From TrEMBL:
Record: residues binding substrate: T7, S8, N9, K10, G11, K12, S71, F152, G153, Y154, D155, K175, H180, R181
Stored PANTHER family: INOSINE TRIPHOSPHATE PYROPHOSPHATASE, INOSINE TRIPHOSPHATE PYROPHOSPHATASE/HAM1 PROTEIN
GO terms of biological process kind: nucleotide metabolic process; purine nucleoside triphosphate catabolic process
Reaction equation(s) it catalyzes: ITP + H2O = IMP + diphosphate + H(+); XTP + H2O = XMP + diphosphate + H(+); dITP + H2O = dIMP + diphosphate + H(+)
UniProt enzyme class: hydrolase
Protein name stated in the entry: dITP/XTP pyrophosphatase
GO cellular component, one term: cytosol
Assembly information from the UniProt record: Homodimer.
Entry-linked Pfam families: Ham1p_like
Active site annotation, chain numbering: D70 (proton acceptor)
Amino acid sequence: MKLVLATSNKGKVREIKALCKEYEVVAYSELIKEFEIIEDGDTFKQNALIKARAVYKALGDEDVIVLADDSGISVDVLDGQPGIYSARHAGVDANDKDNLFKLIKDLKQKGVASSPAHYTAAIAIVTKKGEYSVHGWMYGDAIAQTRGDGGFGYDPMFIPLGFDQTLGELDEELKKKLSHRFKALSLAKKILKSLL
Ligand SMILES: O=c1[nH]c(=O)c2ncn([C@@H]3O[C@H](COP(=O)(O)OP(=O)(O)OP(=O)(O)O)[C@@H](O)[C@H]3O)c2[nH]1
Ligand SMILES: [Mg+2]
């Protein structure tokens, strides 16, 4: 089954391809020109559905299955921020590094070396048979420094619960089995099976 990913994030594409080996996974940019999708939902779920619907419509092929991921990190000491704004934490044109260092600065401004935090991933699936959404979470601590350079985004400052190292230091294979994305995709796969 061909699965089209409605994302322009190369880290997500890499992880989802590695986690969905049983499917033929392609980023939508491999099929059509990338275009801007306004993520103006109030929740991860709404934004994932906005992305999946936009790409399904743009592809114009009703038999295709489109999957989108909307995700982010929520930090307790920051009252759950940046949350759905994780990709724009340091501004609209911010890249992963800008966002990472802005979050570290925020923790330092609060006067803490770390804070409980969690990642959320909402996965939306859009097909001619309907629309579906599922979630996954990964809990741990956000620390006010970077360690390691594995993963992507905020991974170098995130220590998953039960570990001493950041996702930047831990093996990518381990993240695969722990992550919010892995948990949401496990549920998404049950839906995909039911669509066959
Ligand atoms: O270190 C990280 N490890 C992860 O596993 C992870 N998952 C999400 N994020 C961050 O959360 C935002 C997503 O925003 P987002 O869902 O809008 O995606 P995006 O804008 O990058 O691409 P798209 O899918 O929208 O095209 C971005 O800042 C990501 O860096 C992660 N950071
Ligand atoms: Mg985005």
